[in-house]
From TrEMBL:
Taxonomic lineage from the root: Eukaryota, Fungi, Dikarya, Basidiomycota, Agaricomycotina
Keywords recorded for this protein, A-Z: Membrane, Transmembrane, Transmembrane helix, Transport
Entry annotated with the keyword Membrane: yes
Places the protein is found: Membrane
Identification of the protein by name: APC amino acid permease
Transmembrane feature ranges: 49-71, 77-98, 125-145, 173-195, 202-220, 245-265, 277-302, 334-355, 385-405, 411-433, 445-469, 481-500
Species: Lentinus brumalis
GO biological process: amino acid transport
Cellular component GO terms held in the UniProt record: membrane
Region (Disordered): 524-548
Alphabetical list of InterPro entries matching this protein: AA/rel_permease1, Amino_acid_permease_CS
Membrane-topology descriptor: Multi-pass membrane protein
Length: 548
């Protein structure tokens, strides 16, 4: 695998053809080669780029949030071996994306790569679909993370009141809204502040995992300690699926946990040495999370007891909190759980940061309704504040699915995965099937690029397929899997919006725009601040009106 840095940057236009060649080694020059002017401060150091992706994974809090999907579909086998299988295949996905991220590091990432490498006939609509899928996938991830945090907070209250408090959906949703608002405030801070916070996020995540790995085996009473044969081979199946298929359905847990790692891509324009830092952040986040998470899951399997049904039905209302309560008691659980909630909270602020940069980039290229409003950089913080609150508002709407029942609520988790995998698959395929020129960056897989891409795409297609299945065979209305409705409806809406006569995206969306040339030729720097934009010609105003 070639990873040495080149001394020359091949500057390309947005169609992927060479435009200029020179010794342009700065991040700003590389971004200019992609057609964009530097608009953010590059305050993220390489370790902080890794920190953003790693903190979004948020190992132990994520495992705690999705244990509810692993226990009914396999129990210990799903917890231990389901994680191992998924982690291995997700590394192929990370490698394929890392190679693209090194070649063209921009906040738009996935939809930009699609435009760059897809066949000319299809690149416009494919870039449109990827832009919307990536946006809804990240925003769905935000909704699922903050919903998980709200549930964890309610579990803490339940533990503190000796299970006398049983939260309603409305109460949990109110906490969810409060979390979203607070995350909007954090994600609106200056880039330098957000970057420095990543060091804290990394430390808290690693320390929490180490605390669980050490403390849980020591503190767990003998009646809840399991034998190796049970921890590595025990099986539970709550929903009448064939055992093998039940195990496959448990993949939702690790798929959601090790997700959103493309976040590093979306801060490419805020990262120093982005062509190297971004790909290595992707690969490192998935690799470290996979290994450390597997160890944590093994510890859980050894210390959870054998009664899976009591874990799922406990009044605490959160399986991982129940396991901790059985092992650590009330006070110990509250101490550990408070850290879990804090780390889960930090996950939300990180993924909103990534989602807002994707929304900002897509609006910069006029891909969203009200793009002119969303595409603004706040002059005080130097961050895309409007994009932050647009993403938070959509996540708030997605959270309303919780009122349709637990199965509909799980669609939020599935949506985060399915939306992202659709957005990951298309640019990876486009690179090899589009017939466009490929100029690798300093991180290159060389001849292994194609086989890695084949495995990555096959895995993602398989994963999205299993995510579409209901909780149990022959479901009723409450047991339906709403992921298909949500993600399918979203794609249909974005395609309808694309094809609407006169006002649809097909009439005005032209893929990535070349903002650097505009700035150099007119002296206008778009998205400079929140002040009124410069006067437009009548024709430009008419075009902007059609986008609304």
């Amino acid at each position: 695998m070639k990873t040495d840095s080149p001394t020359e940057v091949h500057v390309q236009n947005v169609a992927g053809h060479p435009r200029e060649t020179g010794s342009l080694v700065s991040d700003e020059a590389a971004l200019a080669g992609l057609g964009y002017k530097q608009e953010f401060k590059r305050a993220f150091h390489p370790i902080e780029v890794f920190g953003l992706g790693f903190s979004i994974i948020g190992l132990f809090p994520s495992i705690a949030s999705v244990l509810v999907f692993a226990i009914p579909y396999g129990g210990p086998i799903a917890i231990v071996w389901g994680w191992a299988v998924c982690s291995a295949f997700l590394m192929f996905v990370a490698l394929a994306l890392a190679e693209l991220g090194s070649a063209a590091p921009t906040s738009g990432g996935l939809y930009y790569w699609t435009w760059m490498y897809a066949p000319p006939r299809w690149r416009k609509v494919l870039s449109w679909v990827v832009g919307y899928s990536n946006s809804i996938g990240l925003i769905g991830g935000l909704a699922s993370i903050d919903w998980g945090c709200a549930v964890q907070l309610m579990a803490a209250v339940s533990i503190g009141t000796n299970q006398s408090f049983v939260p309603t959906t409305g109460q949990t949703y109110a906490v969810f809204v409060a979390l979203l608002v607070s995350h909007g405030i954090v994600a609106s801070l200056a880039t330098s502040i957000i970057a420095r916070l990543q060091g804290v996020y990394i430390a808290l995540n690693v320390l929490l995992c180490l605390a669980i790995i050490i403390a849980l085996p020591v503190a767990t009473p003998s009646e809840f300690k399991n034998t190796p044969s049970f921890a590595f081979g025990g099986f539970s199946n709550f929903y009448r699926w064939p055992n093998g298929f039940a195990f496959v359905l448990s993949f939702l847990a690790p798929l959601w946990t090790i997700g959103g790692f493309d976040a590093s891509v979306h801060i490419s324009e805020e990262a120093s040495n982005a062509r190297t830092a971004v790909p290595w952040a992707l690969v490192s986040a998935v690799g470290i999370a996979g290994l450390l998470g597997w160890i944590v899951n093994i510890v859980i399997a050894f210390c959870m007891g054998t009664d899976m049904e009591s874990i799922m039905s406990n009044p605490i209302g959160q399986p991982m909190a129940t396991i901790l309560f059985n092992s650590l008691g009330r006070n110990g659980t509250l101490a550990v759980w408070s850290i879990v909630v804090v780390v889960q909270y930090l996950m939300g602020s990180s993924i909103l940061t990534a989602a807002s940069r994707q929304v900002f980039a897509f609006a910069r290229d006029q891909g969203l309704p009200f793009s002119g409003l969303i595409y603004r950089v706040n002059r005080k913080t130097g961050t895309p504040v409007n994009a932050v609150w647009a993403a938070a508002f959509i996540a708030l709407l997605l959270g309303l699915l919780a009122f349709a029942g637990p199965t509909a609520n799980s669609a939020i988790f599935s949506l985060a995965i399915a939306g992202q995998y659709i957005a990951y698959t298309i640019p990876i395929l486009s690179r090899f099937l589009g017939g466009r020129q490929w100029t690798p960056g300093p991180f290159s897989l060389g001849r292994f690029g194609l086989p890695v891409a084949i495995v990555a795409v096959a895995w993602m297609v398989f994963s999205v397929t299993i995510l579409a299945f209901p909780t149990a065979p022959a479901p009723n209305g409450q047991g339906m899997n709403y992921m298909v409705v949500v993600i399918g409806g979203w794609i249909i809406l974005c395609l309808v919006y694309y094809h609407i006569p006169v006002h649809g995206g097909a009439c005005w969306f032209n893929g990535p725009l070349v903002t650097i040339e505009e700035a150099e030729s007119t002296g206008i720097v778009r998205a400079q601040d929140d002040r009124d934009p410069p006067d437009e010609t009548k024709e430009e105003k008419k075009l902007e009106g059609s986008r609304m």
